[in-house]
Design brief:
Blueprint (H helix, E strand, L loop, with lengths): L1 E4 L4 E3 L14 E5 L3 H11 L3 H7 L7 E5 L2 E11 L8 E10 L4 E5 L4 H11 L6 H34 L6 H30 L9 H66 L14 H22 L4
Parallel strand pairs: 3-7
Antiparallel strand pairs: 1-2, 1-3, 4-5, 5-6, 6-7
Keywords: Membrane, Transmembrane, Transmembrane helix
InterPro entries: CorA-like (IPR047199), CorA_cytoplasmic_dom (IPR045861), CorA_TM1_TM2 (IPR045863), MgTranspt_CorA/ZnTranspt_ZntB (IPR002523)
Family: Belongs to the CorA metal ion transporter (MIT) (TC 1.A.35) family.
């Protein structure tokens, strides 16, 4: 799918035999392109074929390549997974092909990042390559910070459940969050490096404002990296403590079960003894049964008070 944008236009771009390239198109968005669309973009904008191969590879590393006034940028962005997926978040590559007056963005699937940028276009914001590049870096930084806030909320919720947990569900939940943070850490290091290299592009030196916007986005990316490291350390410590908490919770449960077993044992023992079909003391006394059972319950009550005082029940 192809879309093209200028300051007033957001329109799909259909590849036909009599197509004429829009002279005002500043941003061309490429998402899950067909072979014909790839050939079309490569012909009109000299986009290399490997750009689309790179954005289809989730393991692709962020990087910046320059050749004269043209630059290729690969960045990683966070993307949420389904609720039942093994990971909470993953990172996906996006490609930017920078020309002096046009930019091509490419991704293997639709992303919230593009929707956010298109929303800014609909608000009538001026569109040029330098400003769009700064907006992309800022939007990626915001996506990371939003994802990290969600992860932090899940860590806090899991910590509350963990206090009374006796199964492995919370452990695997923490493990999934930790895997997402590892992906974030690796991707953010690459994005930060690319942002630092981008600041040195001749294209950005034409406008101090856009340069400052990317510098601000770089600060946000560094903040996201620091938050990622803190949250990863928190999860690691929680997982280390999980074993002790789980063992302690199970021990407390067994202690309570054992204490109640002892409390109930006194009257149960009396009942079982006098249920035997053999001669027993006081068996002919009319009050033997209530007295003995009452004594058993008194003993149970005393045991209950003792265990209660020791906080075993």
């Amino acid at each position: 799918m192809l879309h093209w944008f200028d300051e007033k236009t957001d329109a799909p771009l259909e590849v036909t035999a009599d197509f004429h390239w829009p002279p005002t198109a500043t941003w061309i968005q490429v998402v899950t392109p067909t072979t014909a669309e790839l050939d079309f973009v490569a012909k009109h904008l000299q986009v290399p074929d490997y750009l689309f191969q790179d954005v289809s590879d989730e393991d692709e590393r962020p990087r910046l390549e320059r050749e004269g006034d043209i630059a290729l940028i690969i960045l990683k962005v966070p993307a949420p997974m389904q609720a039942d997926a093994e990971l909470r978040f993953r990172t996906l590559p996006v490609g930017l092909w920078l020309l002096p007056h046009q930019m091509v963005t490419a991704s293997a699937q639709p992303l919230a990042l593009w929707d956010e940028l298109r929303g800014q276009r609909q608000r009538g914001k001026a569109l040029h390559v330098r400003g769009l590049l700064a907006e992309i870096f800022q939007a990626i930084a915001r996506d990371y910070l939003r994802a990290l806030r969600l992860i932090n909320a899940e860590i806090a919720a899991t910590e509350k459940i963990l206090r009374d947990s006796q199964n492995n569900n919370e452990f695997f939940r923490l493990l999934a969050l930790n895997k997402s943070l590892i992906l974030f850490s690796s991707a953010l290091k690459g994005d930060i490096s690319v942002a630092q290299q981008t600041l040195r592009l001749p294209l950005l030196k034409q406008d101090e404002g856009d340069l400052e916007d990317i510098a601000d986005a770089l600060i946000d990316l560094q903040q996201a990296r620091d938050m990622t490291e803190i949250y990863a350390s928190t999860i690691t410590n929680m997982m280390d403590a999980y074993v002790g908490v789980l063992q302690n919770n199970i021990s407390n449960t067994l202690k309570i079960i054992t204490a109640w077993t002892v409390v109930v044992a006194a009257p149960a023992t009396v009942a079982s003894i006098y249920g035997m079909n053999v001669p027993l003391p006081l068996q002919h006394w009319a009050y033997a049964w209530p007295v003995l059972m009452g004594g058993g319950f008194v003993v149970s009550g005393m045991l209950f008070m003792i265990f209660r005082k020791k906080d075993w029940i």
